[in-house]
Amino acid sequence: MAHLEIFLLGPLQVKLNRRPIIGPKSTKVGALLAYLAAEASRPHDRNSLAGLLWPDRPNAKARANLRYTLADLRTALGCSQPASLFLHIEQDCLQFNRSSDHWLDLNAFESLSATPGGPTDPAALDRLQWAVELYRGPFLSGLATRSAPFEEWALLKREYFDRKMAAALGRLSVLYQQHGEYTLAEGYARRQLELEPWREEVHRQLMRLLALSGQRSAALAQYETCRRMLDSELGVAPEPATIALYKQIRDEEPGRRVWKRGPSSQAHWGDLALEKSGDLAHEAELAQVDHFLAAALTEQGQPAPTRKPSYSERDGEIGPRLLALFLLANLYRSQARYPESVTAGERLLQLAEQAQEPSYRGLAHWMIGQGSFFRGALVRARAHLEQALSLYDPQATQSLTYLTGADMGVTCLAMLAYDLWGLGYPDLALQHAQRAIALAQTLEQPEPLGLALAVAGSGFHLLRREDALARGRIAELLHLAEERDLAYYWAWGIVHQGWWQVRQGSVEEGIAHIQEGMAAWQAMGMETVRPHHLSVLARAHGRAGRIEEGLQILDQAAQVVEQTGGHYYDLEIHWQRGMLLQAHDPTAAETSLRQAIALAQQQEARSWELRAALSLGRLWKQQRRDQEAHQLVAGSYAWFSEGFGTPDLRDAKALLDGLPEKGA
Fold this sequence. Notes:
Elements: E1 4-7, E2 13-16, E3 19-22, H1 27-38, E4 44-45, H2 46-53, H3 59-76, E5 87-89, E6 93-96, E7 102-104, H4 105-113, H5 122-134, H6 148-178, H7 182-195, H8 200-212, H9 216-234, H10 240-251, H11 269-273, H12 283-299, H13 318-334, H14 338-355, H15 358-374, H16 378-390, H17 398-404, H18 408-423, H19 426-443, H20 446-463, H21 467-484, H22 487-504, H23 507-523, H24 530-543, H25 547-564, H26 568-581, H27 586-603, H28 606-622, H29 626-637, H30 647-657
Parallel strand pairs: 1-7
Antiparallel strand pairs: 1-2, 2-3, 4-6, 5-6
């Protein structure tokens, strides 16, 4: 059976049974096949194809040229092969046969470059390296069709895949940095700069890598290269973050690192403790923090030094011990190890109460509240988060905010917005979201503001299906992230932008952005909201008609939940699975939606219960099970006492108004 290979990244190359049949000199034949293969998700009208390739010719002449080119393409694909083997040819349209025995480098590149996984996953490194090897150069480089519409289309594709390639190179650079392979990381950063020489964050990454590998002079020289390029090409000065990094490297003391990790970095606890902070400036205190972190890790069943340090409150070491437990709980939270995070938070709370330390009591409630939320214990989460807010003192926790990149007050308000929405208080949730953003703005610190815009802003409004409000917050978030070099929040913003685009109908572009943001998160080792991102990606594939792919992605999300204990996401996964299955397997869809409802009732998540009930009610209405649908939705709707102007409650009211009540 014939096997077709199509290479579009770099010069055009097409092989049939490993024998080259089309190259860059086969201009219009190659252009036609390239377009059909790259846009294989839909059929293409012959008039549109003719106008794309011969825009300056009369329609009749362009159609004739298309017939001749199609005949040449069929000949190139093998006269002995049926035309339908690789092409669906109809009287008025053409489409590439995606079910044929073929391999397209674009598909392989996209799949490999979106590989999830952190620095401990060797498969992630292998797949990313394979993706980078597939990129032989810019999309269709060297193919000159002399058609402006085709060149414009190719340019957009070229820019898209260049961005994907740059993102893959950036991930490899970060992953190898986390492995301590600074030379390899440097090489990938330099390749990324070749594609994006104006990206200051890449220049900063290269400066860090050079400094980490002991090449301080080269790191300073890289700053000069960046400064000269920005001045000559753009007429601008380096960003404050670039200048600050330059000064830090220039002024660093021998043997000491003074540049700060981003808030998303999943650092080893020893590295985290060694960050520079006003309250942790003395080496003796740092040694105590390391001492108790080792002890805490040992008690949690984690690797630590072979000799377990002894400690007691009477030794005057209570402060470092409290700090160690907080850092440990926060580290587990960032790794999506929610049971361990809650346990460490509970131990911190017990010790803080014994020591009568209100600031650490607040931090303990914060950790327990966040972990409880992700575990699906929404009522418990609310109680602890509200208790943390009552103990919030921004001055007392300022140094810890520096270490973690988060402010307790902002985070608690943002988390309560999600928690209260889930519990069925949409208006109260909105008030907390607005308070989170207002507080973050008064603090005048980029990380808390980034979190507020991402969680209480764009993410919260997308959750509530308030797309117009979400769009404005996404723009604010991306602007802040780019201006202040917040890679963590930039990735979050790109995912939200992608989901917003999908909901507006730009499905493929939105999917690309979702995958780009997820890849950046994975490169930084973050796992906290990965099930949600996977669920969003699955739904996006569903909107593109790729139901099976969406279901496979939801299976990945379920595996992550099982590994991490983040059972809050079970609700979304079952609901999304039901939505994907509705048109193709109504029985399986009903099963998934019933599971979502049962889980929501178990977690007392009234808004999720209503959302799943609404989806199942619509399915039953299509099946003419009107009374069952009315009873189901009415039972969930009746619980609410506020939020009747939100999209979900408006939709529920509209559905109920169109359904007969029992016995009517």
